[in-house]
Amino acid sequence: MGKQALLRRSGQLVFAAIGGLLTGGSTGVRRRSAAGDTSSALQPPADSGDLALEGICKAFDGQSVLRDIGFAVQAGEFVTLLGPSGCGKTTLLRIIAGLERADAGEVRLAGRRITDLPANRRPVNTVFQNYALFPHLSVFENVAFGLRSRRVDAAQIAQRVTSALAMLQMEAFASRYPHQLSGGQKQRVALARALVNEPELLLLDEPMSALDAKLRAEVQLELRRLQRQLGKTFILVTHDQDEAMTVSDRVIVMRDGVIEQIGTPAEVYERPVNRFVAEFLGSANLLAATWRNGCFATAVGSLHAATPPDWPADHEGTIALRPERIHVCEQRPECNGIRGRIRERVYRGDHMDLFVEPGPLRVRTPVRPGLRVGDEIWLQLPPENLILLED
Question: 180 φ, ψ to 5°?
Answer without folding.
Answer: -95, 10
